[in-house]
Automatic annotation (TrEMBL):
The lineage of its organism: Eukaryota, Fungi, Dikarya, Basidiomycota, Agaricomycotina. This is SGNH hydrolase-type esterase domain-containing protein. Keywords: Hydrolase, Signal. Residues 400-420 are annotated as: Disordered. It comes from Gymnopilus dilepis. One of its GO terms (molecular function) is hydrolase activity, acting on ester bonds. CDD domains: fatty_acyltransferase_like (cd01846).
Length: 460
């Protein structure tokens, strides 16, 4: 039925670093983390909920938790990092390197004692708190050489113990969970230096552990219908992409490390000849990656030239297919969200592109760092959107038919250069209002209501 339409349909696609979830990062007020040296920052909950982060990390710079608590903190999220370097799921099952190391069992006990009562400064609730767990590196690594067990069967024992801790957190009010898989530690110098036979033996153990973790999360989610979010983030593709493309991402060495740096350096740019600067290494020491890896490496930001080039390739090939240029935006309120805006003759034409071999190749390239969060085919003439648009406001209203109208005037009195509206042709209950601005000066409206997104143009 679209063949006779005069309007060209606007395609609005949202790309994000995480899958769609009920608790969005922009709404997360508290983050509680559990794990080992890949996660810990030295925070000591026994010193009080408002005690400082001493920055005792294994990454020689901000690790992933500190990055979420600072660089990517868009909601004033307060972090409680209960992780402990060297941790395993349960010290009674896999002893850590020191008896003072707090296992996940111990970390959950700390949460129950200090945070479950929701004291002043930690008045979290089930609907605004994310519980993140990255554990298993030491469980797999420490038990790797044991000859009195069958590792995959033993991992089932570990998963059962982990489940008891998840059940405990659920009973205490946790409803949103993020799990991270064990990265490819078979590619860490600790195991590479032991030879190819050791690496070949370890690799399937990692695969099995991660498969059991994913299955455990699914069972946990099925068991507790009140769970809002249970995401498993696979770290393996991210690590492997960086390791496989070392030159592209600026790593001078991905199989070893510089001994002068292995215990940390005075700064993130320290250089001790003959070694390259510390930030150019993947591994700080035999097992721990540097801070550049923890923040998914700087090149994965929208300003990175390699990422820009890849999106330009997408734009060129899709434009050849569709006859419409692609424009790119990021969400000013939630920088993790990246938008592709373009035109199509109709939604069927777009679906043919999605299924094409060319598009699938691009999805493979971007797979380790981006997931498609959603898309909408809006009945708006894409050609009417000014080519010099630098800001795009998008308001979505659900309920069928036209809604309450466009957003109000911008904070600084600017008027939009264009306004348009249309229905989602795939879901007629959704109606969209769009406003274009041609000179970016920050968010045009600080009081954007629910359902309104402020998008900033990139790659113009």
């Amino acid at each position: 039925m679209f063949a006779n339409r005069a309007l060209k349909h606007l395609f609005l696609c949202s790309l994000t670093a995480f899958s769609s979830a009920k608790l969005a990062w922009k709404d997360t007020k508290f983050l509680v983390t559990f794990g080992d040296s890949y996660t810990t920052d030295g925070f000591n909950i026994t010193a009080g909920v408002n005690s400082s982060d001493p920055g005792f990390v294994s990454s020689n710079g901000p690790n992933w938790v500190e990055a979420l608590g600072s660089t990517y903190n868009v909601a004033g999220t307060k972090v409680f990092n209960l992780a402990s370097g060297g941790a395993t799921i349960d010290a009674a099952l896999v002893p850590p390197y020191l008896p003072t190391v707090l296992s996940v069992v111990d970390q959950v006990a700390q949460f129950k004692r200090f945070l479950a009562p929701k004291p002043a400064g930690a008045q979290w609730s089930s609907d605004d708190t994310l519980f993140a767990i990255w554990i298993g590196i030491n469980d797999v690594g420490n038990s790797f050489g044991w000859t009195n067990i069958t590792q995959p069967q033993f991992y089932s024992v570990l998963m059962n113990r982990l489940t008891t801790q998840l059940d405990e957190l659920y009973d205490l009010g946790a409803r949103s969970f993020l799990f991270l898989t064990v990265p490819p530690t078979d590619r860490a110098p600790l195991f590479l230096q032991q030879g190819p036979a050791v690496v070949a033996k370890l690799r399937p153990f990692l695969v099995n552990y991660n498969a059991q973790l994913t299955s455990t999360v699914k069972k946990f989610e099925s068991k507790h219908r009140g769970i809002e979010t249970a995401i498993v983030f696979d770290t393996q593709p991210v690590f492997n992409t960086l390791l496989d493309n070392a030159n592209t991402f600026g790593f001078v060495n991905v199989t070893g490390w510089c001994e002068a740096y292995e215990n940390g350096t005075p700064s993130q740019t320290t250089q001790t000849p003959p070694c390259a600067p510390v930030s150019n290494y993947f591994w700080l020491n035999s097992l721990h990656p540097l801070f550049t890896v923890h923040k998914l490496k700087e090149p994965f930001t929208i300003e990175n030239e390699t990422l820009h080039a890849n999106f330009q390739s997408v734009a060129e090939r899709q434009a050849e297919w569709s006859g419409y240029p692609l424009t790119f935006y990021y969400n000013f309120q939630d920088p993790c969200l990246f938008y592709v805006v373009s035109g199509w003759e109709d939604s069927e034409a777009h679906r043919k592109w999605i299924a094409s071999d060319t598009n699938q190749q691009f999805l493979h390239i971007f797979g380790p760092i981006l997931t498609v969060d959603g898309l909408a085919h809006i009945d708006i003439d894409f050609n009417q959107i000014p080519s010099n648009t630098s800001e795009l406001l998008v308001r979505k209203e659900t309920g069928g038919g036209e809604g309450t109208g466009f957003v109000q005037e911008s904070d600084d009195g600017r008027q939009p250069s264009w306004r348009g509206h249309g229905v989602d042709v795939d879901n007629t209950n959704d109606f969209y209002y769009l406003e274009a601005y041609d000179d970016f000066k920050g968010p045009v409206m600080s009081k954007a209501g629910e359902g309104t997104y402020v998008l900033k143009r990139v790659y113009a």
